[in-house]
């Protein structure tokens, strides 16, 4: 007897395609998950290292210098590399643009190194996001990448408002905040606030940031890509964000950053549906003249058509014989 096949090759192919799309797509956080938010082994996968390897030693060397270098930078940003191929480690650290002092930035990046190894043990390539900083180390020279979407972490809030007006208000605020970040040539950072007509959510707060080394055009392109995910991933959500290597955004219905927002928008007002423009005096006269012309022409046309129809039917009723023997006059 033939063995019973419980999983066809076609289904296996479909399942494999689905898994690849999930593994290579943006990583989504569980609802309301607090930081840190790690990405272990982002695509393309780089493999693992062993505990007492040269690669591990190079991570330790990088962790001894990168936090300090980021804190000393006016942009609160630093990159570096340690070792040689195949054990080279590339690193990037970025603190949020509103971090109060250098020591807070240094402490956050140092904690990120420890948190990355706890969350993603023995992974060669790790990205981890905290409230005040983010870190990546990898055996790949990711500084050459222009990936704005695949290597991102998506944070979604569980509470849903469910009104199109709220989504429109979020989009307006995030784009205005992104514009400010693009124009900030020193830190590529912006925060924003907007009023909203809802007793439970009277205000919306937003933050946007790019890696300071990026040009204004690259920063805007990166933010456009991730903010463009709002309709698909954030519809009705009262908060969330997308965090990537080169840019990120976040919004909430509570203040999650200190100080006065750099962008302040007035209370959002939903636009009413567009109505037909009012008719002017000149247009009214034109309409009246056209109506008079039609009133004269239409009856005339109707009479002509009626005569034509009557004549046509009378002609059709004649017998062929009568048509053949019509009298004629002799010349």
TrEMBL record:
Segments passing through the bilayer: 293-314
Segment forming the signal sequence: 1-30
Alphabetized UniProt keyword annotations: Membrane, Repeat, Signal, Transmembrane, Transmembrane helix
Gnk2-homologous domain: residues covered: 37-142, 148-256
CDD domains for the chain: Gnk2-like (cd23509)
InterPro entries (UniProt xref): GNK2, GNK2_sf
Membrane keyword on record: yes
Highest rank taxon of the organism: Eukaryota
Protein name: Gnk2-homologous domain-containing protein
């Amino acid at each position: 007897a033939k063995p019973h096949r419980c999983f066809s090759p076609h289904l296996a192919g479909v399942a494999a395609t689905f898994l690849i799309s999930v593994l290579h797509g943006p990583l989504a956080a569980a609802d309301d998950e607090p930081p840190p938010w790690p990405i272990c082994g982002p695509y393309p996968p780089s493999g693992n290292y062993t505990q007492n390897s040269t690669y591990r030693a190079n991570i330790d060397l990088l962790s001894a210098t990168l936090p300090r270098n980021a804190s000393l930078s006016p942009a609160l940003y630093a990159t570096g590399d340690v070792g040689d191929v195949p054990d080279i480690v590339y690193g990037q650290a970025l603190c949020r643009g509103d971090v109060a002092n250098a020591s807070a930035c240094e402490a956050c990046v140092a904690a990120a190194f420890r948190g990355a190894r706890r969350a993603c043990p023995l992974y060669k390539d790790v990205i981890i996001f905290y409230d005040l900083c983010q870190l990546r180390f990898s055996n790949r020279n990711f500084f050459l990448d222009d990936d704005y979407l695949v290597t991102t972490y998506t944070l979604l809030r569980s509470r849903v408002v469910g009104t199109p007006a709220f989504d429109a208000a979020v989009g307006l605020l995030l784009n205005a905040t992104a514009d400010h970040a693009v124009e900030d040539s020193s830190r590529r950072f912006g925060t924003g606030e907007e009023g909203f007509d809802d007793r439970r959510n009277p205000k919306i707060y937003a933050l946007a940031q790019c890696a300071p080394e990026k040009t204004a055009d690259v920063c805007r392109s990166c933010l456009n890509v991730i903010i463009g995910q709002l309709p698909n991933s954030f519809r009705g959500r009262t908060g969330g964000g997308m965090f990537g290597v080169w840019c990120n955004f976040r919004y909430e219905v509570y203040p999650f950053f200190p100080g006065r927002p750099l962008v302040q928008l007035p209370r959002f007002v939903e636009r009413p549906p567009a109505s037909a423009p009012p008719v002017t005096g000149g247009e009214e006269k034109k309409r009246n003249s056209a109506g008079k012309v039609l009133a004269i022409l239409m009856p005339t046309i109707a009479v002509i058509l009626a005569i034509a129809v009557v004549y046509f039917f009378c002609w059709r009723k004649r017998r062929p014989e009568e048509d053949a023997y019509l009298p004629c006059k002799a010349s």
